[in-house]
Amino acid sequence: MKRKLLVISMFVICLAAVIGYFIIDYKNKSTDLEKEVVLYVQAKYPDTTLKNISSGYSLKGKGYYVDVIYNDEPNIRYTYMKFDNKITLNGTTNPEGKHMDPSFGK
Questions:
Q1: pLDDT tens for residues 5-22?
Q2: Is residue 29 part of a domain?
Q3: Cα–Cα distance between 9 and 3 in angstroms, integer?
């Protein structure tokens, strides 16, 4: 009985460690990408301010993404991802927006 309890306890501890690692890794990668996207956007549109920025992980896109909403376009969301060490516009809620990247859709 004690051996079974010990095995279950060790399993729970290992599982908690693995889950904790992935949560910390996710937060670090998404925060780093947010910083890179902010620098990219500020360089591309220096006179524009951001209203909101959020990040996540896309299972479909198999990578981290950052959603950006600009102050001058509060109803349009732009989604940026990093491919081959380049920040690219990966999606938007309105392709007629002011902050469209020429590489979008290529």
A1: 777 777 778 777 777 666
A2: yes
A3: 10
